[in-house]
């Protein structure tokens, strides 16, 4: 292993862990609101960059590179939607979700769903779905970290995996959301520097973008087609729509991403965060796909396409720059893994253990339960990652499709449609998740040439609308929820009485937060 | 453009321009949100 690469990685890890310790000193983990939402004190720039770096995982360096390498310019459909993912999320649900969660005192994205669609089953189903599929996702990050670091540094896979998992665990364990948000901020900057650097080096190596495209056309003109190599997706608009939707609107269905809305300093934060998200995405999102496509020329006989970007970095860049790019790759992986670990720990502890098993636990007790669960789940994830499950691209696209299909209609309708009720939301979550989950394995994806994400979303929205309308009489939306939706739609401060009036209908933990807002604590 | 077929060029360059326009329009439409930028999120 190059000593320069090692120095850069050690420096990078030291800064990340240092930010974790700084977050603890700043008091981010004093109570549940501090631990889970950074005390709702996260500004627009950090909100935008933690949202983006959480959304962009190790997938961007393994999956995106592999998609470009194997399918050519078809892969750009995924980037086309992804560029707008942040601003779509923030503009459609960001401000209203922040305000609604303040009124109800929701501290997690799953608790928020129960407050909007009041029933224990909402929280139980949403909690189980989230824990199961997010855990898959975090596994993909562990694998990506282990594989990538092993390749670039020459360390054995298990050593590389141990280092990556240990660093993630330390700062997630210590500082909670505050540490995660600020390490994400730093890591997002490293990611942009790394990816732009490798893009420039790649384009230089192939003689420029136009020259590279001419060489690709000579090799196989279908590489340049928007229908994929050998025109394998020609006319399949269902696949195209799924590829664009998955990372444009799909993020609105990810519990660990929409949690960023709850933690914003104020509702207006969403506005500037949307702008920063787009600027960051314009710099970052398309580059890994382009590098993957160019790798066809640089490394024509690559054994594992997921190693395209790592291999290009190793071949083209000098040691010091490889260190920066390696740090960027680890940043993408770690910034997603930490957020998901925190989210999974939170959901398992607060939304399942606390809500259904021990409702009288104190805030301090809950922080520790969450931390212990993060440790246990990280350890189990480490062991499973050693066994090297399927490819990162497959896991990420699969879990994103299922989570997006399950939750997107529920989060969007929560603030935009007053008739969306509990039976509608539960049917939508279960039906959407099942459709996306079974679409591929049942053969329907091949038969209909429709992406699982598109199929899951359509079914999920239909169920939300049809079931909600059919059950309006038996399960009407409560008056206090409609008032809260009206208030979330308005601009300006929330009337004090509005928050107090909600308390009588809320769970005990929500009441605690409202009490503190009203100075009763 | 850069040696790409026109349909591919539209996707590669058209989507970023579309999202940039979306963001600018969003900033314009949401200019009233500044009312919620103060310290007092809950009325006294």
Summarize it.
The complex is a heterodimer of chains A (521) and B (44). Chain A is mainly α and 521 residues long.
Number of strands of chain B: 0
List low-pLDDT spans of chain A.
500-521
Please work out how many helical segments of chain B DSSP would assign: 1
Terminal CA distance of chain B reads: 58 Å
What general outline of chain B do the C-alpha atoms trace?
A: rod-shaped
Number of beta strands of chain A: 0
- Oligomer class: heterodimer
| Shape designation of chain A | globular
Q: Indicate the structural class of chain A.
A: mainly alpha
The secondary-structure class of chain B comes to mainly alpha
Look at the structure and give the mean pLDDT of chain A.
84
Q: Topology as H/E string of chain A?
A: HHHHHHHHHHHHHHHHHHHHHHHH
Fold and architecture overview:
- The complex is a heterodimer of chains A (521) and B (44).
- In chain A, 76% of the residues lie in helices and 0% in strands.
- Chain A has 521 residues and is mostly helical.
- The longest helix of chain A has 49 residues, at 157-205.
- Chain A has helices at residues 3-25, 32-37, 44-55, 63-71, 76-82, 85-104, 109-116, 120-153, 157-205, 209-219, 237-248, 255-262, 269-284, 286-298, 308-316, 319-357, 363-386, 392-416, 422-439, 444-448, 452-470, 479-489, 496-503, 508-517.
- Chain A starts with a helix and ends with a helix.
- With 44 residues, chain B is mainly α.
- Chain A binds chain B through residues 73, 76-77, 79-81, 83-84, 87-88, 91, 95, 99, 102, 209-214, 217, 224-226, 266-268, 270-271, 274-275, 278, 281-282, 286, 491-496, 499, 517, and chain B through 2-5, 7-8, 11-12, 15-16, 18-20, 22-23, 26-27, 30, 32-38, 40-44.
């Amino acid at each position: 292993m190059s000593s320069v690469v090692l120095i850069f990685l050690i420096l990078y890890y030291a800064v990340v862990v240092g930010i974790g310790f700084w977050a603890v000193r700043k008091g981010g983990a004093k109570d549940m609101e501090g631990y889970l939402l950074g005390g709702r004190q996260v500004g627009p720039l950090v909100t935008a960059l933690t949202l983006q770096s959480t959304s962009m995982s190790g997938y961007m360096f393994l999956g995106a590179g592999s998609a470009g390498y194997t399918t050519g310019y078809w892969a750009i459909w995924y980037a086309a939607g992804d560029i707008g993912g942040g601003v779509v999320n923030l503009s459609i649900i960001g401000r209203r979700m922040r305000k609604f969660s303040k009124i109800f005192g929701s501290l997690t994205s799953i608790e928020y769903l129960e407050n909007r669609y009041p029933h224990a089953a909402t929280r139980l189903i949403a909690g189980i779905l989230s824990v199961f599929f997010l855990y898959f996702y975090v596994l993909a990050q562990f694998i990506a970290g282990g594989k990538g670091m092993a390749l670039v540094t020459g360390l054995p896979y298990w050593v590389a995996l141990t280092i990556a998992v240990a660093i993630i665990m330390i700062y997630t364990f210590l500082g909670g959301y505050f540490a995660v948000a600020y390490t994400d901020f730093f890591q997002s900057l490293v990611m942009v520097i790394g990816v732009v650097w490798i893009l420039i080096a790649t384009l230089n190596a192939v003689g420029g973008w136009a020259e590279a495209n001419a060489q690709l056309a000579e090799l196989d003109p279908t590489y340049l087609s928007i229908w994929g190599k050998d025109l394998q997706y020609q006319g399949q608009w269902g696949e195209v729509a799924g590829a664009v939707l998955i990372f444009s609107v799909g993020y609105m269905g990810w519990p660990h991403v929409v949690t960023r809305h709850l933690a914003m300093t104020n509702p207006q934060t969403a506005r500037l965060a949307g702008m920063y998200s787009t600027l960051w995405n314009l710099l970052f999102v398309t580059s890994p796909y382009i590098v993957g496509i160019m790798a066809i020329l640089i490394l024509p006989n690559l054994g594992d396409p997921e190693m395209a970007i790592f291999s290009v970095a190793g071949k083209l860049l000098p040691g010091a720059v490889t260190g920066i790019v390696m740090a960027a790759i680890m940043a993408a992986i770690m910034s997603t893994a930490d957020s998901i670990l925190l989210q999974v720990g939170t959901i398992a502890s607060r939304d399942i253990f606390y809500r259904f098993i021990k409702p009288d636990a104190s805030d301090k007790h809950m922080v520790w339960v969450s931390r212990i669960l993060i440790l246990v789940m990280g350890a189990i994830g480490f062991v499973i990652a050693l066994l090297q499950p399927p490819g990162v691209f497959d896991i990420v696209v699969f879990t994103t499709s299922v989570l997006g299909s399950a939750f997107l209609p529920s989060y969007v309708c929560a603030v935009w449609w007053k008739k969306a009720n509990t039976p509608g939301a539960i049917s939508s979550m279960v039906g959407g998740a099942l459709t996306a989950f079974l679409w591929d394995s049942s053969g329907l994806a091949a038969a209909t040439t429709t992406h699982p994400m598109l199929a899951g979303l359509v079914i999920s929205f239909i169920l939300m609308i049809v079931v909600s309308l059919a059950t309006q009489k038996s399960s009407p939306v409560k008056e206090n929820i409609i008032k809260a939706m009206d208030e979330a739609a308005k601009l300006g401060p929330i009337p004090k009485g509005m928050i107090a009036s909600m308390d009588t209908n809320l769970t005990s933990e929500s009441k605690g937060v409202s009490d503190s807002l009203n100075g009763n604590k | 453009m850069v040696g790409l077929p026109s349909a591919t060029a539209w996707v590669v360059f058209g989507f970023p321009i579309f999202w940039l326009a979306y963001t600018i329009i969003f900033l314009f439409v949401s200019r009233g949100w500044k009312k919620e930028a103060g310290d007092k999120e809950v009325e006294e």
